Amino acid sequence: MSVPLDKVVGSAAEAVADIRSGSQIAVGGFGLAGIPWFLIEALLEQGADELEIVSNNCGVDGAGLGLLLEARRIRRVIASYVGENKEFARQYLSGELEVELTPQGTLAERMRAGGAGIGAFFTPTGVGTAVAEGGLPWRYHPDGSIAMASSPKEVRSFHGREMVLEESIVADVALVRAAVADRHGNLRFNKSAQNFNPAVAMSGRLTIVEAERVVEAGEIAPDDVHVPGVFVNRVVELTPEQATCKQIEKATTTPRPKGN
Q1: Burial 75-97 (b: 16+ CB within 10 A, else e)
Q2: Where are the domains of the chain?
């Protein structure tokens, strides 16, 4: 695929227009922090279905990837956490959705390794559990019995410690949100929104970024680049209003003392 030097495209709709049904799509973010809100919405409007999503979680009910889930556009999910999405749990337990649960650090490393050209790696995480020994339910029958389960993985000893073999992930498409991008695709993230985004950006054969601000090449100092532009194919510049769209899942506050 030829990549132009200026990677900025006109809209989120244009950026996702050629994503095909059945694609494996890695999506950045953690909960709702740092998720590519507008690329997800554009993909919803675009219509691709039978998608396999790779993400820490699948959004929440009514927001983020939860929108694609509710529209029955997702066939399979590779994730670490599902507890904030009731529809996700319902589809999984009723046999409508295939789910591969993966330890969180392992998931991040599977994507990072894919971007680094590493086919697989050994990790101690999951040894002695169903992660390594197999039997994790990937899909249920409607009656609650297991329709598909994970297979055992290779376990070997390194430096006196047992480790399990995990395959890397190279997704068809990666969707990412960045605080700043330059026209060459170099990215900088803001605080906790960095989360899974760098690993996701590396993992995609086609990486699409929505950026809160786009600057000219050279305006991001080299030491401030979190993901180099070599991993990025398309950049969408958000409007100021879109850039401030940052919902959170839960808010816990302490009442202000009287008189303050």
Answers
A1: ebbbbbbbebbebbeebbeebbb
A2: 8-119+168-243
Strands 161-167 and 155-158: antiparallel
Task: Please give the DSSP secondary-structure letter assigned to residue 224.
Answer: G
Report whether 169 contacts 78 (CB < 8 A).
Answer: yes
Which residue(s) pair with 187 in the sheet? 181, 227
b/e burial code for range 196-205 (CB count within 10 A of at least 16 → b): bbbbbbbbbe
The pLDDT tens digits of the residues spanning 189-235 come to 999 999 999 999 999 999 999 999 999 999 999 999 999 999 999 99
Q: pLDDT tier at 77 (50, 70, 90 boundaries)?
A: very high
Q: How does pLDDT run across 146-182, given as a tens digit for each residue?
A: 999 999 999 999 999 999 999 999 999 999 999 999 9
Distances 55 to 13, 37, 126, 175 between C-alpha atoms, Å: 21, 14, 19, 10
Q: Which fold has domain 8-119+168-243?
A: Glutaconate Coenzyme A-transferase (3.40.1080)
Phi/psi for 35 (5° steps) reads -85, 150
**What six digits make up the tokens of 67?**
């929108």
pTM of the model: 0.92
Interatomic CA distance for residues 171 and 39, integer angstroms? 16
Helix (H) or strand (E) holding 112: helix 104-115
Residue type, position 213, single letter: R
